[in-house]
Structures are given as C-alpha cells and as structure tokens.
User: What shape does this take?
Amino acid sequence: MSYKISSTNVKTSPYSNRRDLSRRQRGLGCQARRPSSKAYSTVVDIDYGASVALDIPSPTTTDRSVPRITVPLSSAVFREGSVELFGFTGLVAVLTILSRLSTRDELVRNHCHSIHPTLGRTRFPLVFTYTHTRPLMTLATIGTCWLLLSAMILTSQTSFASSATKPKSQAKRLTLDTMYPGLRKMEYAVRGKVVIAADQISDNLASGKSYPFDHIVYTNIGNPQSVGQQPLTWPRQVLALVDLPDAVGIQHPDILRLFPADAVARAKEIKEGLGGHGSGAYSHSKGCRAFRRDIAAFLQDRDGGLPAEPEDIFMTNGASAGINMMLNALVADSSCGVMIPIPQYPIYSATIDLLGGQKVGYYLNEANGWELNMEELERSLQEATEQGIKVNAFVLINPGNPSGTVLSRTNLQDIVRFCAKHNLVLLADEVYQENVYDENAEFVSCKRAAHEVGLLEDDGIELVSFHSISKGVFGECGRRGGYMELVGFNADVKDELYKLASANLCATVSGQIMTSLMVRGPDQGDVSYESHQAEKKAIFESLRRRSKIVSDGLNNIPGISCQTATGSMYCFPSVEMPKGALSAAEKMGVSPDTLYCMSLLERTGLCVVPASGFGQREGRYGFRTTFLPSEDEMARAVEQIREHYHEFCEMYA
Ligand SMILES: Cc1ncc(COP(=O)(O)O)c(C=O)c1O
Assistant: This one.
C-alpha cells in the first residue's frame, strides 16, 4: 500500500531519501489533493535519518508550531516533489493528516469531494484512488479507512458540539491577511507609535523603572479632562439629576437643598423631552426632538437669525460619528475623492482610506498663518480631476486642527464659492467654534458665509456643519456628544442618512443631553447663570493664555518656528532637522519627526505627535502639541522642548 501526498502540498527537504519505490507500488494509494494556496503546503523534514516528520499546517495558518506527525523511514519513500507512505504506519499517518483537516470549518470550506456514501454530506479535501489489484486486501483496507475516518469525523463534530472550541491546529479565521485591507491601510497618528511608547513608559514608571522624569505629559490629543480640566458644574448637576431615578432625584423632598433650582427645573424638562423614559432608553435616531429644537435655536442665534430646522439636525456620538456617516455616503467607489487640508485632522484621511476613496490634499499656507489659498485649491482639484478622480466633497476645518488658525470671513466666502462652483459637498468641521483667542479674529460659520454670498438663498450649496461637546470649554470628550446640520440636501438623501442613523439606533443619550446643555445654558437671571458663565470664562481665558505660552514659547526657540495659535487647542511648529537625524531616521525606517518625537518623549516625558501624521510639505518636519495641560506644565514643557532640541541637534549634528 502506498499513500502519496502529492507535490502540490509537499515540499521535500533537500535531503530527500530517493529509495526505489517500484517494489512497493501496490495496494491502496491515497493521494492528497488540496486547494492550491501557498498556506496549504506541508513541510517534510528528515528527522535524524530514521523517520520522516510531516508538519501539517492548517490551510490558513501562519503559525509555525503546527502539529507534526513522525513516520519511520521504512514506511516512507521520497520522490521528486512528493513523499509516499507505506504499510499500516503510513495509513495511520494519512488518517492522522485527515483528522487534522477534518474540523467542521475545513470540511465546509475546502470544497473537495465526497468520499463515501455514509459521508455523503461531508466534503473533504483528500481523494482516495484505487491502485491495487488484490481485491480482498483492498476491500479490507478501504473498510478500515472508512471506519476510521467516520469515527474521526464524528469525534471532531461531537467535540465541536460539546466544547465549541477550535482544535489547536486550526488557524484563526480573522487574520491580517483575511481582514478588510482598508482597515490595515488606515492610520491614526493621534494614537500612533509615539503614544504607544508613552503608555509603555508610563507603565514602566508605575512599576518603578527610572527615567529622567516622573510622569508623562500627554499633549498628543485634544482631551481636556484627561489632563486636568474640571467639568463644568451646572451641566453635570443637570445630567446627574436626569440620570437619577426620580425618587432619589428630581422628586426627592430635599432635592432643592442639594441642587440649584434651575438644574432641577432643567432636568425635569429634559426628562419630559425624553418622553418620560429617562436617559437609559433609545431616543429618536436623529436625537431627541427637544434637544434638536435647542440646537436649531442656538444656530439661528449664532448665525444672525438664519433659519435652522430641527429636522435637518442629526445628533451624533461626537463629531466623529457625523463625519463618518457623511464620508460613508460620499465615497461611493474607489474613484471618489474628497479634498482634505494638508495638514489635517487624521480622522479624514483615516476614514477615506478605510472606505477605499481618494484623498485629494490641498496645502494650507504656513507662511501666511495657515490660510487657504484659492489658487492652491484650484490646482489640487484640477490635478485630481486629470487623474480621473471624481471629487465629491471638500473638508474645511475652522478653527484649524492642527493649524490653530481661525479663517477670515473673506477666506470663508471664497471657499464656499469654490465649493458651489465645482459642485462639491462642503464638510465644515466647526468643532472649535468656541475656541477663538485672538480679539481680532472671529468665528464665522460656513453657513453664514454661504448666506453672505447668496448661495443659501439660491440653493447653491450642499453643506454639513459638525459640532461637538468634546471641545470648546466643555471638553466632555468621553460623553460622545455632537451634531451635524444638513443644509441644501435633497429630501431623499436626508432620508437615506436617517436610515443610516437608524441603523445605529441613536447617539448616546447622555451625550445628547450634554449637547443640549452646551447650546442652551442656564438663562440670564437663573441662579446658576453667573457661576456657569464664570467657570466657562475661567477655562477659556486659561486656554487663551496657554495658546500664547506655547506658540510664542516655541517660536522663540532657534530652529523651531510656530505660527500663533489664534484658535482651537493646538500648535503645529516646524523643526529644523539636523543632518544626522535625517540619515539616522532613514536607517531606522521612521520619519525624521518620529525620531525627534521619540527622543523628546524618552528625554522629557513629553508626548507629542509627529507632524507627518497630519500631512505636511515634503522636507518639512515638526510636531503637533496641544496646549491643554495646566499653564505651569505647559511653560515647563516649552523649556524642556528648548533644552531637548539643543541636545538633539548636538547628538545628530
Ligand atoms: C477637527 C476635529 N474634528 C472632529 C474631531 C472629533 O471629535 P469628537 O468626535 O470627540 O467630537 C476632532 C477631535 O479632536 C477634531 O480635532
């Protein structure tokens, strides 16, 4: 008898034993035929010259520790590209191989041949071929095979049913090779390499390892409450009251001794708005109607009376969820492009990559305070169009992340005209609308700019504006609240977006409540009005001071240049890289600014993000930092950056 594992699935070792087979080519032949995937190869190795070891990888495994079957050499013969197994030991080896493959998944997936009427339901990756003429012997062997195989398959199925665990030999179904490639392509620098290293150092510090600093200063992400900002009192009071069951909250006899009357009154109103269900039930998929009315009133007030419709407002889990929804709708196929600023907040590049669309970058003008230049927009659009990209949308971040810039009214008017002229959906990321620190600067919404150039009235633009409770002075990032307002879209498109929102059920209700409290605080004259305004002002003024400490401080370091942050929460300085750093980075296979940021982290404990994660002109290097930690901490950080840069230049001179 011989059992042959053919060359499609066997790699013989260079030490193959080439014994003459002819004497033994009798009996039942068993030929393994398996689908032609590389991962299916079975590695054959000679073990001390006395036996042959067959490593049996599962079809998709990348794991080296695959099961090994050892067969004495007396039962195996090697031929060009194959190994044949003989006798009872050979038969057992073949059956063992079969058993390795006979998991339920492989039986279903490997789409081979039924081998026996009793296993008719089963599809199996191996085919037996009859090659011998001695009928009795053959029948006996076939019978044994069937019996053994049936037993093994039954055992494997029973063990599936009973334990529901995978056999050790089975590969993971979801691997880097099987997953959606867009997910692997997507990068999100704000939580990238340097941050992972910072977390590791933080753990090391906690377990006693010594560094030249005693804690990590996280300035990598706009997450104010994670670096010391206290939540505003009144919104939290209202939220707590909405969350509490009535009997221990708004209906408690002593409630007015514990909470201000305006917080209790607002909590009652919110509970009513939520239909009496409280914060633990799903709301309307666009968000609770009462909150959307609050948002519409806020927008109308902000935009000088321009009407806003609650039905055109979708409440979202932070601005991110709205951005995601819109990009999902816009990136119809791989030829669709979205214009994004360079530098940009990486949710845009990441999501476009994830969806398989095209990023069409337009450069912001650093020398001119990161403003948008119309010729640059036309250049970028034209180049993309010439490459066959269908550009559908234009992303504007104002005030800018990471640029820290507040765009002027005329700049905004030019941008809305540009979008209208080229029929681009304008995605207006306005999450930093409250973070404007320069007295000479003013936040102007894209909707207002569109109105001022007559585009709203003409139905001349499709525009979405995003806002969030994560930024401004609320800094309630973890509550995931925000909204988007749709302007100028067809009703059927809005219906489809509503369907998408419905598939996600609703945005978190506590995030919705916070959003309504952000757009509608206590009324003037209410008991909490003054204290609420004072808390907001204190946070705002401190942010204003920090923006100056950091942008001026960095700009004063020779070799580092930083535009003044007139808004948002970030500075995006450029750093002159010493020559040695460029070659060292190349050798290490990292960007020069990653090398710089890693070095800064390891020497000072400051965690910033390499500028390359946001996009920048070729040959520019730098980093992004927030100015969210305390004023003292930020002042210290600037000094540390100065000292470290000096050292860094000496080290890589
Ligand atoms: C420009 C910009 N847009 C959107 C977001 C998303 O914020 P969230 O989803 O927390 O509202 C951020 C967060 O940093 C941001 O900087």
